[in-house]
Structure formats: C-alpha cells, structure tokens
Amino acid sequence: MNVVELPFYRNMFQTLIDNAPVGIYVIEDGAFSYVNTKYSHLFGYERQDFALGLISIEKIVHPDDFAIVQNNMKKRLLGDKEEAHYKIRSFHKNGSLIYTEMHTTAMEISGKIIVFGSVIDSTEQVLAQQQLQESKERYKSLFDNSPNAIFSFDDLGKFLCVNASSEQITGYSEDELLNMHFTPLIISEDIPQATKNFIDAKKGISSNSDLAITRKDGKKIHLNVIQFPMKVNGEIVGSYGVARDITQKIEYDQQMEQFAFYDPLTKLPNRKLFEDRLGQVINFSKEGRNHFAVLFIDLDRFKFINDSFGHQLGDEFLKLVSERLQLSLRKVDTLSRLGGDEFTILLPDISEEEVIRFAEHVNHMLTEPFQLEGHSVTISASIGIALGKGKENGAQELIRHADIAMYHSKKNKKNTYAIYSKEMDITTTYNLTIERDLKFAIPNKELELYYQPIVDLKNGQLKAMEALIRWHHPELGLIPPSDFIPIAEESGQIIKIGAWVLQTACSQWKQWEAAGIPPFKLAVNISTKQLQCDSFVDSVIHILVETGFQPTWLELEVTESILLDDVVVIKESLMRLKQLGISISIDDFGTGYTSLSYLRQYPFDKVKIDRSFIDDISRDMNGKRIASAIISLAHNLNMSVVAEGIEHDMEFQYLMEENCDEGQGYFFSRPLPPHLLQLFLHQQ
Questions:
Q1: Per-residue pLDDT averaged across 511-527, rounded?
Q2: What is the end-to-end Cα distance of the chain in Å, rounded?
Q3: Helical axes 395-412 vs 271-286, angle rounded to 10°
Q4: What percent of the chain has pLDDT over 90?
Q5: Which InterPro entries does the UniProt entry name for this protein (predicted)?
Q6: N or C end of the chain: which has fewer CB within 10 A?
Q7: What contacts 237, CB < 8 A, 6 or more positions away?
Q8: pLDDT digits over 235-267, tens only?
Q9: Can you say whether residue 406 is alpha, beta or left, with left for phi > 0 and alpha for psi between -120 and 50 degrees?
Q10: 417-425 long-range Cβ contacts below 8 angstroms, 24+ apart
Q11: Per residue in 156-195, pLDDT tens?
Q12: Where does residue 175 rank: exposed (0-12), middle (13-18), buried (19+ CB within 10 A)?
C-alpha cells in the first residue's frame, strides 16, 4: 500500500465501521471515546453525546449487571486481552429495557489500554425465550395440578407423559403407565372407539367421546376423553389427551333412567322404553331399510304357579324367565316386561324366516324345567308375532297386532306362535267353516291317510308305520291337521274321525299283509277326548275284530298333554288297551308336561323323543344331552325309544351311537300315501 492509497483505505474502514449492522464502541479511561451509528441508535442517544462524555457506562447498564461490566474492564486494564462474551441488560433513553450481547477485547496503543467491542440487540430473542419459559411453567402448573388426567401418546399409542391425576384415575404409577399401551386400560366394548380416536388424532382430527376403563384394582370407571394431535415442526408425532372422570354422572343418569324406563322387578325395559325403541325402528324402516318384528309372549299356566307357590316365588319365577329369555337375544334386540306374565321382544333387521326360528327356539327354551326354591317347575308360552315394514303402523298398533296374534296362538294351541295377519279378523269364520264341513269330510271321502316309516336305527329295517291324517277340502284345499284336529276335539267330532283313522289304517295294513309285505307295527295317534270316552276301548276292539287286525301289531300314540286331564279315567283306558296286547307309546316326550313318575305308573312301551330335541343335535345344543338322558331313562324303565324328525346324517349317527332304538323323519322318508309307499315296502 503506497502513501497515496492510505487516505482511501482509512476513509473506507471508517465508513464501514460507522455503518456496521452491529453496535461498535471504544472505551478509553473508563469512558466512551467512540460509538458507531448502530450503537447510538440502539440506546436512543446521539453519537456526540457519547463522544462528549455525556453518557456514562453506568447510565446505560442495568445496575444489577453493572458489576459484570466492571469486572470485565478491570481484566482488560490488567492486561487481559482475550476476547470476552457476556450478556447484560441495558436501558434505552426512553427507559425501556434492552437485552444485549457484548463482545469485548482490549489493545494497548501508545502505552494506553484501549477497550473496544461490539453489541448485538437480543431483546426480541430474550423476550421470546421468556414467553416460552412462562408458557412452559404455566403448562407445567396446569399439567401437574389439573384434576383431570392429562397425557400424551407416541405414534404407536404408548404413554409418553402422564400427570398425577392420570395416576389417581387409573390406579397405576407413572412408571407403570409409561411402559403401557393405552388399549389394556380400555374395556373391550370401547376399544374400537378409543382406537378410532387415536387414529383420527394421528390424522390431525380431534375427538371427544365417553369411554370406560378398568383401573388397576379392577374397578370400572367412566371417562370423558378429549384427544387431539401432537405436532412438532408441523408434523404429527403422536397425540395429547385430557380425561375427566364422569363415573358419578353416568351412574346417576343410569339410576334415573332405570326409574323411568325399566321394570323394577326384572330390570327389563318397560312399556315406555319399548315403545320408544320400537318407534325409532319404525322411523328407520320407513327410509326403506330392513324389516323388523315384535313378539308378544304370554306365559301359559303362570296363574297356577302364582297360586301354588305364592306371589313372592311367582315374582322370582318371572325373574328366572326374563334371564332365560335374555340368553337368546342379539345386542340390537330389546326384551321388555309389560306387566304380569307378559313380555315383548323387538327384533330389528330380521327376516320372517329368522323370526319364526327365533319364536320356535323361545318356545322350546321355555319348556325346559326351572328350579324354583327346590321345586322343578315347567311352563310354556304362547307367542304372537307382528311383522313390521314401517309403512303404516305405529308402535302401539304393532304391539296390539302382536297381542292379537298371541291370543290366537293361545286359543289354538299353547306353547306355539302365531304371526298376525289381517286374515285373523276372519279366523272365527274360518273355524266355523271347518267345524261345519268336517261333519261331511268322512261321507264325502275327503279324508286320507299318509304313512311315515319308522325304522330300526341299527339295521335300517322297517319297524312301524305311523298313520297321519290329511283333509282335502273341496274349496279350501289341503287343510293341515293342526287346523282341524283342535276344532274336532272341541266339537267332539274327534270320536268319529279317530274311529275312521283306526279303521282305515288297520284295513290298509291288512292289504299290505295280503300283498306279501312282512308285518310291522301300525302306529295310530289318539286324543284325550277319545281316551275319556267310555266306549273308546270297546270301539277299538270292534274295529280290530271287523278288520281282522291282530292287537299285537297295533301301537297307539298318546301325547304328554293327556296326562294333565282326568288321570284316573285315562289310566284305566290305557291299562285295558295294554291287556289286549296293544302297545302304548308316549309321543312328543320332553315338551314339558310329563312328571317322571308317570313313566313308571302308566303302561308305556315306547317313548318318542320330540323333534325339537332332535333338531338341536345338529346345532350342538342341549338337545344332545336331553336326547341321551331320555334314551337312558327309557331303557332303564324297559321302554324302547323312537326319535322323531330325523333329517340329517349327523342326527342319525349320534342317535345310533346313543343306542336309540328307532327313528323316523325325512332322512328316511317323508309321509306318503299308500300307493307311493309300495316301492319302499318292497325294498324292505
């Protein structure tokens, strides 16, 4: 650098220092000798104020930090030339506080120690840090002292942090929680909702829901949980949650709901709640959704139980019935007690076929004995069904329809069901038509017998044929026995019809015998009315003589229900038939009427297991155990056993393994008229 260039560089460096973006100062003998423009603007003074000594170091430095500056100056004056860095607070001319970062060093010039350095304004940074720290402290205070559980999960659902209330609410310590995933705390029913909340939070979606958890001590508590995403640098890395204990509120609400909407005896929904839920289903169905059904259940013979055991045990019995009914329900179904021995069931989203299967299951289930204070009590139920499509009827109307159907069921035959239809309004006319025309069914040759084989389960050989009546009405078509037999019994026409059945069946058997068919038992059903008739046994003898039929090949079937009526007369008739060499079997065994003592007292040769228990075998239900028990009991009493309604190979195999003697059902052959049985008989 030559002499000519020196002024240029001096001016350049002077300009650079004067206009530098940081404050620059020079101190000589403890006072400012130079400050640049940035330094003067930082403190709000003019540059000449510093140069003239009007502004002292002590004036602009916070008194609590002045000692830091003094110590640094002393080090410099003692020859410490190492650069120093420290932070102090200073005052602006207007009195506001300034946070600064000081960089100082020293240099000896002409034997004098000169201190110089730079100053950076860090006020915004410091204030931001202070606000952040205050925010952290406020959050920590809220976190530590909140009565609600506050927690956070990582991206996998494990606890990252928990407050003291989290420990109190869950019963787990902080260390235990920090090693846990959230799902073990949630009761199983609420896990799907809790998982959804967690996933939503990871997607940036907040949630608010009520969940139940299980504390460490096993106690169930209810929480209202708010969950929201945890973001770091704009990315979601987990979730936060706040949980409030609402157990007392839930229990109070449940108690109030119990009083308003539930039966105090059985704790089932009452009529009000049932109608409300039915109304909701109706509205839902009006939108074109699936159909639904209402079942009206009335217990048969409950008055007898109530009168026999007293009202207190009657109430206990109703509780047992309600508990058993609940075992068959889906989560969406509603069981209600309307009062007395009347129950209703709402079955949403169900087909007619499913409703029928359900009603049959309820009928069967209720016939199983109840244990009441050491007594074995049997009962049955009449069920009315109203199918809903949500188009016309309201809740009360549907319940009324189900009630009508129930009375229709009870009137025709107990322990069954009936589906409401408009035709029920003309049921009386229909029944009168049957009663009137039944008088002419025999002379007009409208009655016909079908026969269903009964085979030996061990070797498949034909053992018997059961005669089953059919009525071909000239206008109404084929009328099922279930329609006309009860009317025939009520009207007394069953006596003539029963005699016709026995006469026709014996004559047909003789025709088979004449055709060279090996002999087999002929099973004929008889009713209570026939057995109660004084001339019944004599009429049987007359038919046997007239047809030339040997009594040893005749088997008369009676149902369990006859044992409830005129026991002395019926027993006497059965004993006389037995003395003639006629076999007696008890049909539909196990459906709820028979006392085991009757099996010992009456002259039964054979027990026929009701088809409902056989159906249960393929469904692996209690039918297996009941069937096995009946077989064992009958064999111990020297009776043979016939299983009715065998339709599947599984049922056949099981019964054969259990040493059941005989069986009948569609698995072997459906009931057929005589001319269609020829092939079967010749094969035998």
A1: 92
A2: 136
A3: 110
A4: 49
A5: Biofilm_reg_signaling, EAL_dom, EAL_sf, GGDEF_dom, Nucleotide_cyclase, PAC, PAS, PAS-assoc_C
A6: N
A7: 154, 155, 230, 231
A8: 888 899 999 999 999 988 888 877 888 898 999
A9: alpha
A10: 417/295, 417/356, 417/359, 417/360, 417/363, 417/382, 417/383, 417/384, 417/385, 418/383, 418/384, 418/385, 419/352, 419/355, 419/356, 419/385, 419/386, 419/387, 420/384, 420/385, 420/386, 420/387
A11: 999 999 999 999 999 999 999 999 999 999 999 999 999 9
A12: exposed
What secondary structure, in 3-state letters, does 539-565 show? Answer: HHHHHHHHHCCCHHHEEEEEEHHHHHC
Residue type for position 386? A
Cα(661)–Cα(663) distance, integer angstroms: 7
* Cβ neighbours of 143 (radius 10 Å): 17
pLDDT-based confidence at residue 295 (cuts at 50, 70, 90)? very high
pLDDT tens-digit map of 619-633: 766 768 888 988 998
Q: Could you tell me if 344 and 359 are in contact, meaning their C-beta atoms sit under 8 angstroms apart?
A: no
Give the integer Cα–Cα distance in Å for 394 and 275.
9
pLDDT band at 473 (very low <50, low <70, confident <90, very high): very high
Indicate the pTM of the whole model.
0.44
CB 141 within 8 A of CB 164: no
Phi, psi torsion values for 563, nearest 5 degrees: -75, 0
